[in-house]
Specification:
about 950 residues, 3'-5' exonuclease DinG, Rossmann fold, exonuclease, about 50% helix, seven-stranded parallel β-sheet, DNA binding, 4 iron, 4 sulfur cluster binding, globular
């Protein structure tokens, strides 16, 4: 296969069978790896071009009036297509129009090979964040000057295709041969392309296998291990910390083009160093723009270098910040500092690929499309990755389930008995963390380590907690317990799926021809039958819980789920629920006993066990431990209440799977944090842009269990000029949001947002506290703005991915993004893409949420005021996070509009306003605010 015609059609719509027509053809002919010919022509479709298509393609009816009809245009393309593979980006779209055009012109249909560059890109570029033509062009430095013009799109697709062929040619022959089998059922003929590459390589075996960065290990190609050793530091040569910081700033001024002197950053460096030196804890609120990442990395590295037997652990809440520290900030400091240092990033075990499990899975033959694609992606990725971290790879949706099968986990680990131990990604990350001066981790792993009695992270006495406003919530989740119906389904599916691809099925395939089968065959069959039975009993249990919870549950606007608080053991008197719990637990125990017999039987044949069966036996042992774990979880969550804990269930009523999520958490987490974490560490520095409420740290210290006398608290304001860069607007004529006025509020909110979008040219993010309200606004707002050139994106409607929605928002002109939940923090959109932030409601937690209820009850029991002690401070901190989405740099400008009049009319509203930077506040009717906002933008 050496002739390819890369094609792009612009069309009047996406349904050729319904009469949509081609309006432009772009084609690029590739032979022997070179572009040899091109074709570009407009086409008269014979029907009007819809306005949306005209706007998208910049092609109008007048432009195609004198263009050739499709039969003439397609006749020009046919000689190029003769003997060629048909290549396109989303090939089935273009193929459908090609076949319709050929049929209308009286030609036979195209029967040659087809190649989809989306599918090929997913296989060969598994680390891409997106596979749109524009995204690939940008990331691969391919020129693409006129998107949605057929000639430009075809040229860009051809350049990308040639890059992919080059990438394919560079892969080791063994990888290419494995990919042939994995791609046979792909939606385009990629396996034929790879077979042709294989034939060329067999004729010239020296090509592609001389990459010194790769090695073959057990017939899988891997990146060679990075064996960077620990740096030796001359401690005597390191100056005193103030001198060290002065020298660092001189280096920064010399080498950083965007260097800005930030006094607060320098002060924060000294304050963290002093806290470490004095052995005390520190709270630092650092406003946006302080540069807090460098402010804490610098003293952390200095301390670890000066105290050679100490390391500093830095913990973040988000993976995004974790990656930024490791991939951006630490490399910058490595260039600027006068001494060498080592840093490691360490994540939860399930983030890492288990090579033993992956190797075993390659022999499975019952794979669906997503699993085959995932295996191919991982084979390609293994030639590139040093970490085996799932965050590096963009698996398809079905690949997320496959990852559970091949991820590293403690229960099924062979440790140093594993043939892959020397190449194990998890133990490699763990070794690097043990040798590093600074370890970057996350709050979740920090608390997992606490629960594991500090057996995961290397020993440390000094820590820096960034995004510390999330520390309590993560602690609460990890020091509690959760279990859900989807986890039970996944666990049982790992044992068997339709008697085909589960662990018990693999044991059957491996053992059925061995002598050992006489000993274990009947027990394996018993386990298979019990697994199927348990699936039914588990389904019945969760159906019973679902039906019970749905009758009395209350909707959580934050999550869009029904929520029901309960007390374990309160099922007495509800015979069906009680029976379902008993049956499920009994069958878990029976299945566990049966699996244990299979496990013991697998080792009867010692020689066999040492070979192919040992891995299966260890995986089976892992499943047995999981069953034990979940049986204990059901006992704790449904039968035996623990004092000081709150219990609730969440019901996913919108999904066809009817998920049931059982949860418990300590009502008060502060005592455990104080005793298990803060008292065990010499010094912990906690930082965030949002730690204070009404200029006081009392709330945060109390919630975290920090003793006032043992901690210092410091506030560094933002260096940005908020009085000039932003304006806070509160319309005073918006209806109050009450049950009776909810429809009026939503109607007025929608109208106001539409009017505001006209003034701000979109560039607007709207933050909701309720998914339900977001959905109620979404369609009416789209209708209001239809035909005006605006795009409305809805969180949970257009996509559940915050990353995808944010990227689309930045790239789309005149865009309005409706976000809930996770959009209140961690979204960074600098520049003009975001110029208006709308906050629909003050972000109070729902008062009927079980955790809020339980904590309120506890405060009331000691004669406190739950609203002022808990609800208001929580809402203020979240409000500050939301407000912080707008101004991210000194050049950012925009307005914040709050549609909740309580911020100016209630007695507690002042706490929200006082917690913000000094910002002009305007409280007027909406018809007065709109011209003021327009004038404000004109003056900027």
């Amino acid at each position: 296969m050496n002739k390819f015609l890369v094609v792009d059609f612009e069309t009047t719509g996406n349904k050729p069978k319904d009469g949509d027509q081609i309006i432009q053809i772009g084609a690029v002919l590739i032979e022997q790896g070179e572009i040899v010919s091109q074709l570009s022509t407009l086409v008269n479709p014979g029907i009007p071009i819809p306005p949306f298509i005209q706007q998208l393609t910049k092609i109008n009816d007048a432009m195609v009036q004198d263009a050739p009809p499709i039969d003439e245009a397609i006749a020009k393309m046919l000689p190029l297509l003769d003997g060629a593979a048909f290549v396109a980006h989303n090939v089935h779209f273009d193929l459908g129009f090609l076949q319709a055009a050929l049929s209308d012109a009286g030609y036979l249909p195209f029967t040659g090979p087809i190649l989809d560059t989306v599918e090929l890109s997913r296989l060969l570029l598994p680390g891409q964040t997106g596979y749109k033509l524009s995204e690939l062009s940008s990331d691969l430095d391919v020129e693409h000057e006129a998107p949605h013009q057929a000639d430009s799109d075809a040229q860009a697709t051809a350049d990308i295709f040639l890059t992919l062929i080059e990438k394919l040619n560079a892969l080791p022959l063994l990888v290419i041969q494995r990919l042939i089998d994995l791609t046979k059922n792909f939606s385009s003929n990629i396996s034929l392309l790879i077979e042709s590459i294989e034939q060329q390589r067999l004729l010239r075996p020296q090509l592609g296998d001389d990459d010194e960065q790769l090695e073959m290990f057990r017939q899988i190609a891997l990146q060679r291990k990075d064996e960077a050793g620990h740096a030796v530091i001359d401690v005597e040569a390191i100056p005193a910390f103030p001198t060290f910081v002065s020298e660092l700033y001189e280096q920064m001024a010399e080498h950083m083009t965007d260097f800005e002197l930030r006094p607060a950053q320098r002060e924060m460096m000294q304050q963290i160093y002093d806290a470490f030196s004095d052995g005390r804890h520190l709270l630092v609120e650092a406003g946006t723009g302080t540069g807090k990442s460098l402010a804490y990395l610098t003293p952390a590295l200095y301390w670890a270098a000066q105290e050679s037997d100490e390391k500093v652990v830095i913990s973040t809440h988000t993976i995004q910040l974790q990656e930024q520290l490791y991939a951006k900030d630490l490399p910058l400091l490595a260039k600027l500092l006068d001494f060498p240092f080592t840093a490691a990033i360490f994540k939860g075990r399930n983030n890492y690929l288990c090579l033993r499990k992956f190797e075993m899975s390659l022999s499975d033959s019952f794979d669906n499309y997503d699993v085959q694609l995932s295996k191919g992606q991982i084979l390609t990725w293994l030639t590139e990755t040093q970490t085996g971290d799932v965050e590096e790879i963009n698996l398809p949706s079905g690949g997320q389930l496959y990852w559970r099968q091949v991820q590293s986990d403690a229960n099924s680990c062979l440790h140093n008995q594993c043939p892959w131990f020397s190449r194990c990604f998890y133990y490699s990350a763990r070794r690097k963390a043990a040798e590093a001066d600074v370890v970057i981790t996350n709050h979740s792993l920090l608390f997992t380590d606490l629960q594991a009695e500090q057996r995961i992270l290397p020993p440390y006495r000094y820590a820096i907690i960034d995004e510390a406003h999330q520390f309590e919530e993560v602690a609460s989740n990890h020091l509690g317990l959760s279990f859900n119906s989807l986890q039970m389904d996944a666990l049982l599916n790992e044992l068997t799926v339709d008697r085909g691809s589960g662990l018990l099925d693999r044991i059957t395939q491996e053992c059925v021809s061995l002598p050992i089968w006489k000993e274990i065959g009947s027990e394996v069959e018993t386990s298979l039958q019990m697994t199927v039975e348990l699936k039914e009993y588990a389904k019945d249990l969760f159906n019973q819980l679902y039906n019970w919870g749905r009758r009395a549950g209350k909707e959580s606007p934050e999550q869009g789920r029904l929520v029901k608080r309960y007390q374990p053991g309160e099922w007495r008197g509800r015979k069906q629920v009680t029976q379902s719990i008993t049956y499920a637990q009994d069958w878990i125990r029976l299945l566990k006993t049966s699996l244990e017999k299979v496990y013991v039987g697998l080792f009867d044949d010692v020689e066999a066990a040492k070979q192919q069966l040992k891995s299966l036996a260890v995986d089976l042992a892992g499943q047995i431990k999981e069953l034990e774990k979940w049986n204990e979880a059901l006992q704790r969550l449904l039968i035996e209440p623990e004092e000081g804990h709150v219990y609730w269930m969440e019901l996913d009523t919108r999904s066809t799977r009817r998920g049931v999520f059982l949860r418990m958490t300590p009502i008060e987490i502060a005592p455990q944090l104080r005793e298990q974490f803060f008292k065990q560490k010499e010094s912990v520095a906690l930082t965030s842009a949002t730690l204070s409420v009404n200029q006081s740290f009392d709330y945060t210290m109390k919630r975290l269990g920090l003793e006032t006398e043992a901690v210092e608290s410091i506030h560094h304001g933002s260096p940005f000029d908020f009085e000039k860069q932003t304006m806070l607007c509160v319309p005073n004529d918006i209806p109050a949001l009450t049950r009776n006025e909810e429809s009026a509020f939503i109607k007025e909110l929608t109208r106001s947002l539409g009017d505001l979008a006209q003034v701000t040219a979109g560039r607007m993010m709207v933050l909701f506290t309720s998914y339900q309200m977001l959905r109620q606004v979404y369609e009416p707002l789209k209708q209001q703005l239809s035909g005006a050139g605006f795009t409305v994106l809805g969180h949970g409607i257009d996509s559940n991915s915050r990353t995808k929605l944010t990227k689309q928002f930045i790239e789309t002109p005149n865009c309005i993004l409706l976000g809930a939940s996770s959009f209140w923090e961690g979204v960074d959109i600098p520049g003009e893409a975001l110029s208006c932030l709308a906050i629909v409601r003050l972000p109070f937690w729902p008062p009927n949420h079980p955790v809020v209820e339980a904590r309120n009850e506890q405060i009331k029991a000691r004669n406190g005021n739950p609203f002022m002690e808990l609800s208001v401070p929580q809402a203020v901190i979240r409000f500050k996070q939301g407000f912080g989405r707008l101004v991210r740099t000194q050049r950012d400008k925009g307005i914040v509009i709050v549609y909740d009049k309580r911020i100016v009319e209630s007695r507690y509203g002042r706490f929200f306003i006082r917690s913000l930077p000094q910002t002009p506040l305007v409280n007027r009717p909406m018809n007065e605010l709109l011209p003021m906002i327009e004038q404000w933008f004109d003056e900027q």
